[in-house]
Amino acid sequence: MLPKKNPRSGFFRFLIGFVSQPIFGIGAILLILLLMVWRGLNPLPGTNSIYLATSTLSIVVDYTPLSTPERTEPPAATQTPEPSPDITPSPTNWFGVPFTIGYSVEGRPLEVYQFGNGPKERLIVAGIHGGYEWNTVVLAEELISYIMEDPNVIPPEVTLYILKNMNPDGYAKAWDATGRANANGVDLNRNFDAEWLVDWNRDVCFNRVYVTAGPEPGSEPETQAIMSFITSHEIEAMIIYHSAGLGIFPGGSPPGPKSQMLAYYISGITPYAYPPKDIGCVYSGAMANWAALQGVPSVDIELSTHGDTDLSINSQVLEFFVKPELNLAP
Predict the structure, then answer these.
(1) How far is residue 304's CA from residue 273's CA, in Å, rounded to a whole number?
(2) Which of 33, 140, 272, 307 could staple 164 via S-S, CB 3.0–4.6 A?
(3) Of 121, 191, 195, which is closest to residue 158 (Cα–Cα)?
(4) How far apart are CA 232 and CA 123, in angstroms?
(5) Picking from 35-44, 142-151, 274-283, 314-323, which range would have the lowest pLDDT averaged per residue?
(6) Which residues contact 252 (CB under 8 A, 6 or more apart)?
(7) b vs e for 120-153, b when ≥16 Cβ sit within 10 Å of the residue's Cβ?
(8) Domains and their CATH numbers in the chain
(9) How many CA atoms lie within 13 A of 34 on its CB side?
């Protein structure tokens, strides 16, 4: 038989538990508050304290601030420059545009037309006897037009120069024998320093009007201009046009081997005579002979008549003459 419970003992246990629990709770709270106050008065080194206040309780919160990262400015945008276009000068900017190498006695320009810009330089001269050889000037104009219509005629390795009219004063004076000499009465093809003579046998040479060789070699401004041009360039070959009918004359006295080869090749593609007709004239002071002395293979080509340009023939001469390799070595 179980013992009978005392109701009063149960009541006392309940009362003790009810009273003791709040006391312990209040004590715990007071202890926590005392610790927090002490901590607030004695913060840990290297920390910061924040006090949060309420109407009934102050709470101290310790924190260590996060480091603020330095602001890094974004890199300045680098604008990539657009590539410059590869500008290659168009041939039309200079191709066939004349430039002046000197002036005649009466102040007319001596104009040279340049075609191409290669290292192999060639030269064609027309109009040295002006007036009655006017057709050589017209031929030069036709050759210039021929090239301008088809620039591919000139290979990239070649530069061709054309002196359209070496004696503009004679050309302007008359288209007959009276226009042969320059304004000083000098036959320019007897004014070069190549076996120059003050006079010569006129019975077998040109004698329709009186002309001279000038007071000395190279005395005329036209002669000086073309000599200066040739010596300032590395001309590999030269053609000088005349009229009429005597054939092809190689430069040099005696003719140089390379000039002879040039005459031979040209005779093979034209009806012009080579060797030329010999009329017994001594060609003193001639331009082709002077050029040969400078190491420039040269020929005089005489057109068929004083009125025709023989363009169909001389367009073939031109295409041969501008070949990169003329193979003039004998």
Answers:
(1) 10
(2) 140
(3) 121
(4) 13
(5) 35-44
(6) 259, 288, 289, 292, 293, 298
(7) bbbbbbbbbbbbbbbbbbbbbebbbeebeeeeeb
(8) 97-321 (3.40.630.10)
(9) 6
Q: What letter would DSSP give residue 242?
A: E
At 33 the pLDDT is 58
What is the identity of the amino acid at 182?
Answer: N
- Residue 59's CB: how many other CB atoms inside 10 A? 12
Helix (H, G, I), strand (E, B) or coil at 178: helix
Written as one letter, the residue type at 98 is: P
3-state SS assignment for residue 239: strand
Contact predicate 329/129, CB 8 Å: no
Q: Which helix (H) or strand (E) holds 7?
A: helix 7-41
pLDDT bucket at 253, cuts 50 / 70 / 90: very high
**Cβ(157)–Cβ(253) under 8 Å?**
no
- The residue written with tokens 């009063």 in the block is 8
Tell me how long the chain is: 330
Whether residue 179 contacts residue 102, with contact meaning beta carbons closer than 8 Å, is answered with no
* Residue 299, token pair as written in the block: 């020929």
Over the stretch 67-118, which tens digit does the pLDDT of each residue have? 444 444 444 444 434 433 333 334 446 799 999 999 999 999 999 999 999 9
Distances (CA, A) of 203 to 199, 207, 240: 12, 7, 24
**pLDDT for the residue numbered 39:** 52
pTM of the predicted protein model: 0.73
pLDDT for the residue 12: 43
Helix (H, G, I), strand (E, B) or coil at 174: coil
Torsion, Cα 257 262 267 273, to 10 degrees, reads -50
Residue 311 pLDDT level (bands cut at 50, 70, 90) = very high
Q: What is the DSSP letter of 314?
A: H
